[in-house]
Each structure stands twice: as C-alpha cells, then as structure tokens.
C-alpha cells in the first residue's frame, strides 16, 4: 500500500534535522537510485499499477450490507444469525467474526440489517448479485449493497430536486451521408495505424476520402447496423462517431479492456464485453458484459460472471464465449434479447432490462438458438438425449408468450444449424444425421414456412446424399437459396426455390452447376446476383452469377482474397486481402456483374467494411412502380454516367498528352546535351565516332540450322 | 515466342549484361563462374574460371574484348573475352559488389561492401590499354554512404559517378574531386534499400529499383525524379528498352520468405511498364524464384532475365509486342 511505504514530508524533515541535513542545499534532482534497487520507493509509472490493485486490497470491498432483515428480539438473535450464515456461507467463505448484526442497545432487538465480511471482494460482489432481492419471506426481501457504496447512497439528498433541463441544442444530421448527390456509398478501411472512411466513387474509378485518423481505435472499428455510428474500441471503453460532414465523437461508453462490441439491430443499445484474467490461475476468466443506451450513454444493465456461465451450449464442454453472447430479436424496436445458459434460455426485455416473467425459459439440454430476423420468434435446437431414446428437436417459440408455435423431432442427429431467410419467411435447418452404421453422417434440410398457416415443414435431401455441405445461403428478401455441396475439391453449386412455377408451395431445384472452385457464397443484398467465391485454399476465385437467368456473368480472380463484402445497395462488391497474408494486401472494387473497377494496394491491411444503410423508405408499391418503369428512371442516370465516362476519357487523354509532351521536352533537352558533348565523348573513345552507332538498325538475317537428321522407312500398304 | 531456357549456372543468377553488338550475353551467378552465351540462340560459348566466390557484377568493353567481374572473393578480375583467360586481378579487403567501365573503357568504377569493420567504398581504377601495364592502385576512393552500395555507374563523359544502395539514397559524385554533388530527396526518393540501377542506352537517364516495391526514373545530370513505377513486389532488377518507351521490373518476395503454396504467390514476373505513362502493360512469367537480373538486348528485340532459380530465360519478342498500344 502506497501510504505505508511513502514517508510524509514532515517525517523527512524530522529525519533530516536529526541527521543535520539542510534540505535547502540538497539538489533532489541529482539523487539517483542504484539500478535494480528502488529502496521501496515507488516510481511514478508503477504508481498507476499500484492504484489499480489498491481497490482490491484496501477499503471495504469485501464487505456487504444486508438490509430488510426481520427485526427480532434477543431470544431469536442466534436463530436469525444462523439462517443468515447458512445463506451467505454458501456463496463464499465468511471471515471469522465476519458476520456482525448490530442490536439496539435499549431494547436488545436487532436493527434489521447486518454486515458480512468475506475473504475477497469477488465473493462479496457475487453475494450481492445473487442475494439482492432474495425473498426470505413475503415481507422481508433482502436489499444487499456493497459497504463501499453505502457512503455514496448516504449522499443522496432527501428532497427530490427536479433534474436540470439543459437547453436544446440541435444535433447533427447523422444520416447526412445518405443524401449524397451521387448516391455513393461509404466504407471504412484500416491499414497500418490509419483508419480511413472513403466514398466509393465507382464512376471515377477511385475512392474519394472523407475522414482519416491515425490510432483511431485500439483494435477494430464497427459500423452500427443502420450505418449511423462508427464504433471504436479503446483501453478505457468504446466510443461511437458520426456526424453530418465529418466524424465527431458522439458518445463514450466506459468499459475497461473492452474486447468485443455488438449493437442491437435498431441501434438503440450497445453491448460491450471484456474478459479478465483471474487472480487465481485455476479459476476461469471473469467476464463482464455491459449494455449501454447508445444515445444517452447510460449503462442499462451489467452482467458479471465466470466465462463458463457465458459459454454457449447446454451440455457444457464448449470452451470460450461465443459472440455475441446476447442475441437481439429482429424487430426494429430492440425489444428483446436472449442468451443461452445451461438448460435455459434467458430472454430479457429492454423496458426494464429484466427477464420476461422474471424467469428464464427452461429447456433441457438446449444447444443453440436463433431469432427470426423480423419477428419475436425463437428457434431452439435440443440434441438427442439418452442415446437416442429422446429425439433431437427444433422448436419455434413465440416471445413474450413463450408459446411453442411448431416443433419437429429429428432422429439420429449429429448436428444442426439454423439459417433464417432475411425477411423471416423461411427457416432452413441443416441436419447432419448418422448413417445406420453410425460411422459417417449425411445431410438434409428441414424447411419451415414461417408465414404460412401452421408452419408447414418440408424435407429436402440432396440428390447425392453423401455430399458434404460446404456452404448455404438464402437469397436476401427472396425465396431462393444456394448450396455448395460435394466431396471433391471442385464441388457443385445448386440453387433451389421455395416456390415452383405454379406456386404450389413446394421447394424445387432450379439448377446445379458442376465443378466449381468455390467454398463461400455471397448473395447481393438486393438478391438475384450471387458471387461464388473460392477463398483461402482456393486463392480467391470469383464467379459472378445471375440467378434469374441462371447464367455466369463473369469469372475473375482476386489472388489470395480473404474477405468479400457487397455494398449495401448491391451495386458493387469489395474483395480484400487482409494482413493474414504478407503480400498482396489491399482491396478490389467490382461491379455487380464482375467487372473490376479499381484496385487499391495497402500494406498491413486489416479491415474493409461498407457503411450499412437503413432500410429503404419507399413503400413496396412505389418500389414495384420504379422497377416497372426502370427505363424512364434510369435515363437520367445513364446520361450522367455517360457524361462522367466521357469526361474521364477526356481527362485521361489530356493527362497522357501532357505526359508525352513533358517527355518530348526531356528527350530534346537530352539530345541537345548529348550533341554538345559529342566531340568530347569521341575524344574519350580515342576518336571513335560513336553517337551514330547508338541508333540501331535491325537487319533481318536468316540462319538455317540443321537440328536433326533421321531416317524412317515408310511402308506402302 | 517461347523463351529459351539457359541452364548453366548452379546457383542463383546475380547479373546479366549484353555486349554492345547484342550478340553476346554475359551472366554472373552465385556459383563462381561467369558465363558467356550467344544472345541469339542461347548456346553456351564459354566460362570464365578463376573466381573463388559469388560473382556479383560484370561489364564488357565497347569492343567486346575485355570483361571485368566483381566477386565476393574480394577481387575484381579483368578477362580476355575471347580466350577466357585472366588478365589482371584487383585485390580488395572486402567483397566487390558492382563494376562499370567508363566511356572509352579506360576507367572502371568498383564498389566494395562494408566488411569486418571496413565501411563500403566506391573505387576508381585506371584500365590500361595493354594488360601488362595494368596497375592496382585506385585513382579515387569515395566513402560515406551507409551500408552496401549496390551499384555505381559513370555519368556523362565520366565526369560524375552515380551510386545507390542500402541507405536508400541516390548520389552523384564528382569523379575528379570525389565531392558529393547531389543527393536524392528523402521524401520523394526510395523508402527502402535500392537493389538495382540501370542506365538508358544513351546514358541520359537511369532507373533504380528498390525493395520499397517501386522503381524510379531519374535524370542523370540533374538527378531530377522523372517517373515512379509502383508494383506489388520488392524490385530486384530493372532495365529499359532501348527501342520502345518500356521499362521492365523484376523481383519477387525475398527468397527466404517465398511461400511454398503457389508459385504465383511470389509474383516472379518480369513486369513491363509504359515508361511515360507509368502504367503496367504486361508481364512475362516463368521463373520459379525471384528475378535477380534483367538485361535488354541493345537492339530492343529480346531481353534476358536471371532468377534465383538458377535459370537465364532469353525472350525474343513476338511481332505483336512492337504494336502494343495503350
């Protein structure tokens, strides 16, 4: 502890006078400690570290105050103490004499509260979290607080004072980027220590800078789901940035050592996550999750616990926390969020940030869950139990009623994965089943039609049942999906539709394209187009495919590409090579039909991310009207495009002309200088006239060479 | 046309040089034997035996009679081109990195590496008409640049010496007084060690290649930066077409960092750029390792590349090449 080590100035003076030292003559700056020995004097930088530990070692962080206990007379004191001890010693080790329940000196009755001192602040914290609100009986609900907090609470004024209303200051238009006249999209890149936001100016075939900053973030940056904010991560917490013309810091969220963040889909809330090394290496990591209100920066709820509690999967054994821990329901209102625990799914609502119905949903052995992207419907997966006696099942649960809408039992299942279509109309469940011998697995799909009456389920099996499924993807907002399947290095890609020609509500196969070097699928956000990509081992093969016409528009390659992202409008595709590779770092921008527009190389390229757009404000009718009369609307833009491309080629011609002229000037200057030096050069060469010979004449010389002579007898038939 | 593969060296190539007539191609490699080839069909004509270390550089006199080679065995040697015999040996205290004959072939500039505490140096030797009169003394010794000087060549009329090397700076020295005349700008110049330097056929401008993945074109007299060619790989070798406005860059990942997954990953291509517009025109693939040496035939109709893979590839251009329009 710092105060024990450091002497006060008085002590030093006293010691000085004892030793006959006049401090006014001492040059303190000249004093140097021998290296490697600090004599217990803490240097300034160590001081910082010391202070952090301070909070744990001193103070009363390990003491809690339990209020709302029953008031009992002397006779019952021991009994009450016993009850309290029983409750609180379950949570941690109470210190000897660590339980103190004061009594009224006059009456001998207890005062209705007690103090409990644990060995460690962690235990105290845990006890507070676990027992605050504990119902001893109907009229005694425990109110548990940290002793250190009591002082803070005491300062709360007795009289309620109305909060100060701050004068209204108009905020910036955070959606300003959407009003770009050229309807361009923005993206953010991180390379080296720089983070940069740029316009994708595809017409000019180059990016147009918006904002650039070094050391903007400590780890990565993330757009909010509707593109309003750009979040950065720092040692002290997270921050969001945005604004009309540039990027200003709009809000900060304190969370030391934050590692991961996640926005709710409607951008109302921000979840931050950090994991801390335990003091005892045998313990698991401590995990802290905070949920903030994005606009006000207010901490709405925090969750603390061991990493095990937040690890996904009911059966346990899965290490690490899978992110996001909290999954938000798909509605725009950010009403619910849920997390999975051992045998439970906890669904919270954001009105009060408490569990719905005050309790978690009990689902024995639940493994995985996912929200519908649009409705408060949860899909749950429970694996097989008891060696197949109890089948695996997928069930759809309505929130907040917790009513089961549909359930499907599945047999000999090894694994399940759920894929929602973006409009929440369909749910595809990929089911890996064991073959009869249990030695291998094969895959099929269960397709749920959520929006239809009684939610009909259809089973889809691939023609070749043994094909491995390499990738699956729904067409955004559409009724089609693509599957990469096969066992060899050149798998097949199949397209299916949830509709048939006669709209009978049957799934039908559209086509299979054979032997593709692809392992990932990227649908355009507008549907219809898809990029079949061979990333990682396949060196960045790209195939741009039109699913309406079932034809390949273009094949290309971005060598070593690691990431692919469509722009939010579906007009452009960005492929990038991030610094997992040493070479080729940078990104390419392609048109939707696979034409390479431009290519930017950046060393140490870490991240490429398009700025998302909020959903279109046009009504579906209007959208349909536009797509029907596309010719009329597109005229204006086509003219603009033409202008720009004319202008570009004009500029290019101009530039080339200037360069050529400049070069000609240099050449003539050189010629002049060479001419001036001609005689001198000739002298250096002992009179040999050389300059003429430097101009070469190519002479055609024919050389015949005998390579081989062989004799062959050809027989006549 | 299909390139001619010339396999004669057992170690990575280091340097290639055509004679003025363009009928002979001299090659240096880390094996100790410089070799001369017929530039037309790639036939091996002979070798020059006598060095005891990697040979880094060579130059041939205007009349193709005299060859000078610089080697890691701390010598530079003069050879009779025709007979293949050693005529003279210059001894140094450190490896010689680059050699270049001046106009008239009566002077040679030789650079020596920093070695055992000795700094790097640029040394000027007089070359005697008759090898019997050859003396070993240096006429001039220039010191100053940090690290290796990868290349030093003569400026116009032998009045200046141009040097470039590991310290990223291109310098012009007065070959008479040994004074430093000009230095390239740190901001606009190369950002990483310069690996190679090659003069235009008339010596009015030169190109430098650097590990900073770029090549730059400079005016020989004023050291004005004329052009910059950006590429995706460290540049080990540069050359210019004497016929068309093309420059060729060769390079690739460092041999130690070459991936084992895909030969394309190293980009061991000779890249052609339009000299004036600074735009990439095309590439010639083929080597299994980085390209260490490039040379254009003085007639501009063929070029040779030498790689870490030990091969020299001789490329005669197709007629299409001469009609490239961009």
TrEMBL record, chain A:
Q: Name one GO molecular function term.
A: RNA binding
Keyword presence, Metal-binding: no
Pfam families hit by this protein: eIF2A (PF08662), RRM_1 (PF00076)
InterPro entries attached here?
Answer: EIF3B, eIF3B_RRM, Nucleotide-bd_a/b_plait_sf, RBD_domain_sf, RRM_dom, TIF_beta_prop-like, WD40/YVTN_repeat-like_dom_sf
Query: Which parts of the sequence belong to the RRM domain?
Result: 62-149
Which ranges form a coiled coil? none
* Keyword check for Cytoplasm: yes
Bias (Basic and acidic residues)? 678-688
- Residue segments, region Disordered: 678-697
Kindly give the SUPFAM superfamilies that the UniProt entry links to this protein. Answer: DPP6 N-terminal domain-like (SSF82171), RNA-binding domain, RBD (SSF54928)
Alphabetized, the UniProt keywords read:
Cytoplasm, Initiation factor, Protein biosynthesis, RNA-binding
One GO BP on record is: formation of cytoplasmic translation initiation complex
Give Gene Ontology CC terms: eukaryotic 43S preinitiation complex; eukaryotic 48S preinitiation complex; eukaryotic translation initiation factor 3 complex
- Tell where it localizes: Cytoplasm
| Record text on subunit structure and interactions | Component of the eukaryotic translation initiation factor 3 (eIF-3) complex.
**Protein family:** Belongs to the eIF-3 subunit B family.
The protein's job, in short, is: RNA-binding component of the eukaryotic translation initiation factor 3 (eIF-3) complex, which is involved in protein synthesis of a specialized repertoire of mRNAs and, together with other initiation factors, stimulates binding of mRNA and methionyl-tRNAi to the 40S ribosome. The eIF-3 complex specifically targets and initiates translation of a subset of mRNAs involved in cell proliferation. Component of the eukaryotic translation initiation factor 3 (eIF-3) complex, which is involved in protein synthesis and, together with other initiation factors, stimulates binding of mRNA and methionyl-tRNAi to the 40S ribosome.
Which protein is depicted?
Answer: Eukaryotic translation initiation factor 3 subunit B
Taxonomy of origin reads:
Eukaryota, Viridiplantae, Streptophyta, Embryophyta, Tracheophyta
TrEMBL record, chain B:
- Subcellular location per the Swiss-Prot or TrEMBL entry: Cytoplasm
Keyword annotations for this protein?
Answer: Cytoplasm, Initiation factor, Protein biosynthesis, Repeat, WD repeat
**InterPro entries named in the record:** eIF3i (IPR027525), WD40/YVTN_repeat-like_dom_sf (IPR015943), WD40_PAC1 (IPR020472), WD40_repeat_CS (IPR019775), WD40_repeat_dom_sf (IPR036322), WD40_rpt (IPR001680)
Pfam families on file: EIF3I
The cross-references to SUPFAM superfamilies, in alphabetical order and at most eight, read:
WD40 repeat-like
Listed GO CC annotations: eukaryotic 43S preinitiation complex; eukaryotic 48S preinitiation complex; eukaryotic translation initiation factor 3 complex
BP GO terms, sorted: formation of cytoplasmic translation initiation complex
WD repeat coordinates:
6-47, 48-89, 142-183, 187-228, 284-314
UniProt main location, coarse: cytoplasm
Q: Which GO terms describe its molecular function?
A: translation initiation factor activity
- Tell me which domain of life the UniProt entry assigns to the organism this sequence originates from: Eukaryota
What SMART domains does UniProt report for this protein, alphabetically?
A: WD40
**Subunit-structure text:** Component of the eukaryotic translation initiation factor 3 (eIF-3) complex.
Q: Which PANTHER family match?
A: EUKARYOTIC TRANSLATION INITIATION FACTOR 3 SUBUNIT I
* Family in the record: Belongs to the WD repeat STRAP family. Belongs to the eIF-3 subunit I family.
Q: What does this protein do?
A: Component of the eukaryotic translation initiation factor 3 (eIF-3) complex, which is involved in protein synthesis of a specialized repertoire of mRNAs and, together with other initiation factors, stimulates binding of mRNA and methionyl-tRNAi to the 40S ribosome. The eIF-3 complex specifically targets and initiates translation of a subset of mRNAs involved in cell proliferation.
Q: What is this protein called?
A: Eukaryotic translation initiation factor 3 subunit I
């Amino acid at each position: 502890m710092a105060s024990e080590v450091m002497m006060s100035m008085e002590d030093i003076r006293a010691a000085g006078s004892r030793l006959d030292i006049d401090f006014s003559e001492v040059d303190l700056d000249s004093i140097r400690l021998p290296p490697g020995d600090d004599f217990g004097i803490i240097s300034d930088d160590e001081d910082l570290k010391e202070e952090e530990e301070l909070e744990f070692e001193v103070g009363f962080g390990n003491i809690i105050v339990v209020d709302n206990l029953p008031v009992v007379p002397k006779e019952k004191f021991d009994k009450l103490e016993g009850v309290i001890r029983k409750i609180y010693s379950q949570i941690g080790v109470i210190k000897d004499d660590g339980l103190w329940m004061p009594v009224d000196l006059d009456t001998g009755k207890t005062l209705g509260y007690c103090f409990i001192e644990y060995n460690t602040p962690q235990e105290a914290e845990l006890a507070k979290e676990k027992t605050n609100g504990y119902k001893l009986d109907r009229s005694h609900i425990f109110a548990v607080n940290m002793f250190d907090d009591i002082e803070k609470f005491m300062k709360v004024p007795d009289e309620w004072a109305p909060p100060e209303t701050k004068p209204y200051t108009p905020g910036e238009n955070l959606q300003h980027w959407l009003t770009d006249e050229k309807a361009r999209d923005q993206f953010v890149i991180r390379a080296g220590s720089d983070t940069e936001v740029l316009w994708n100016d595809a017409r000019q075939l180059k990016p147009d800078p918006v904002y650039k900053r070094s050391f903007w973030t400590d780890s990565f940056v993330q757009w909010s789901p509707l593109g309003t904010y750009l979040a950065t991560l720092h040692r002290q917490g997270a921050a969001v940035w945005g604004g009309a013309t540039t990027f200003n810091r709009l809000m900060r969220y304190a969370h030391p050592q934050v590692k991961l963040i996640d926005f709710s889909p409607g951008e109302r809330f921000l979840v931050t996550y950090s994991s801390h090394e335990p003091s005892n290496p045998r313990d698991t990591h401590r995990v802290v999750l905070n949920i903030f209100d994005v606009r006000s920066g207010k901490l709405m709820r925090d969750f603390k616990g061991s990493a095990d509690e937040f690890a996904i999967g009911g059966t346990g054994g899965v290490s690490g926390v899978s992110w996001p821990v909290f999954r938000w329901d798909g509605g725009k209102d950010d009403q619910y969020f849920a997390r999975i625990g051992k045998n439970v799914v906890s669904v919270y609502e954001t009105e009060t940030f408490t569990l719905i119905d005050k309790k978690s949903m009990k689902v024995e052995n639940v493994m995985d869950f996912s929200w519908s992207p649009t409705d408060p419907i949860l899909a749950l997966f429970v694996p097989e139990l008891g060696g197949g006696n109890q089948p695996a099942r997928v069930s759809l649960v309505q929130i907040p009623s917790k009513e089961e809408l549909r359930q499907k039992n599945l047999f000999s299942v090894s694994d399940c994965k759920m894929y929602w279509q973006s409009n929440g109309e369909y749910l595809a469940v990929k089911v890996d089943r064991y073959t009869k011998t249990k030695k291998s697995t094969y895959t099929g799909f269960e397709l749920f039609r959520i929006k239809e009456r009684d939610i009909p389920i259809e089973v889809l099996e691939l023609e070749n049942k043994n094909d491995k499924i390499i990738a699956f993807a729904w067409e955004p907002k559409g009724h089609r999906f693509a599957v990469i399947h096969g066992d060899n290095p050149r798998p097949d890609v199949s397209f299916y539709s949830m509709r048939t020609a006669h709209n009978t509500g049957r799934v039908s196969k559209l086509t299979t394209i054979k032997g593709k070097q692809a392992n990932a699928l990227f649908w355009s956000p507008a549907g219809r187009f898809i990029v079949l990509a061979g990333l990682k081992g396949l060196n960045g093969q790209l195939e741009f495919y039109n699913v309406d016409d079932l034809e390949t528009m273009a094949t290309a390659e971005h060598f070593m590409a690691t990431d692919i992202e469509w722009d939010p409008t579906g007009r452009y595709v960005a492929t990038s090579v991030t610094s997992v590779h040493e070479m080729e770092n940078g990104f390419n921008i392609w048109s939707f039909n696979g034409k390479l527009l431009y290519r930017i190389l950046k060393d140490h390229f870490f991240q490429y991310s398009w700025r998302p757009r909020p959903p279109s404000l046009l009504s579906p009718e209007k959208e349909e009207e536009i797509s029907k009369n596309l010719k009329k609307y597109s005229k204006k833009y086509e003219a603009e495009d033409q202008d720009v491309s004319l202008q570009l080629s004009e500029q290019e011609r101009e530039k080339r002309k200037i360069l050529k002229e400049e070069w000609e000037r240099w050449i003539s200057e050189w010629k002049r200088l060479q001419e001036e030096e001609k005689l001198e050069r000739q002298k250096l060469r002992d009179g040999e006239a050389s300059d003429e010979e430097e101009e070469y004449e190519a002479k055609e010389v024919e050389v015949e060479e005998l390579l081989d002579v062989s004799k062959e007898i050809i027989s006549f038939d | 046309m299909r390139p001619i593969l010339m396999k004669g060296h057992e170690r990575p190539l280091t340097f290639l040089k055509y004679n003025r007539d363009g009928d002979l191609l001299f090659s240096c490699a880390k094996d100790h034997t410089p070799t001369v080839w017929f530039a037309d069909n790639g036939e091996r004509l002979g070798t020059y035996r006598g060095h005891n270390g990697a040979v880094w550089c060579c130059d041939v006199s205007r009349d193709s009679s005299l060859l000078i080679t610089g080697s890691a065995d701390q010598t530079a040697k003069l050879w009779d081109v025709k007979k293949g015999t050693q005529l003279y040996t210059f001894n140094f205290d450190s490896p010689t990195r680059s050699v270049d004959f001046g106009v008239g072939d009566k002077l040679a500039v030789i650079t020596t590496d920093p070695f055992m505490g000795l700094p790097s140096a640029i040394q000027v030797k007089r070359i005697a008409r008759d090898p019997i009169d050859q003396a070993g003394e240096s006429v001039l010794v220039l010191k100053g640049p940090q690290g290796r000087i990868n290349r030093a060549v003569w400026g116009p009329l032998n009045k200046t010496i141009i040097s470039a090397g590991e310290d990223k700076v291109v310098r012009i020295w007065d070959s008479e007084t040994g004074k430093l005349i000009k230095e390239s700008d740190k901001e606009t110049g190369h950002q990483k060690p310069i690996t190679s330097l090659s003069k235009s056929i008339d010596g009015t401008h030169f190109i430098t290649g650097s590990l900073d993945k770029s090549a730059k074109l400079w005016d020989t007299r004023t050291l004005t930066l004329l052009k910059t060619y950006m590429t995706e790989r460290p540049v080990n070798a540069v050359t210019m077409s004497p016929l068309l406005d093309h420059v060729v860059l060769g390079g690739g990942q460092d041999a130690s960092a070459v991936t084992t997954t895909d030969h394309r990953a190293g980009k061991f291509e000779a890249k052609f750029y339009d000299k004036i517009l600074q735009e990439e025109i095309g590439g010639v693939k083929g080597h299994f390792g980085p390209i260490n040496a490039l040379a254009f035939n003085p007639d501009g109709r063929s070029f040779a590349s030498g790689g870490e893979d030990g091969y020299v590839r001789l490329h005669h251009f197709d007629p299409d090449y001469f009609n490239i329009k961009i």
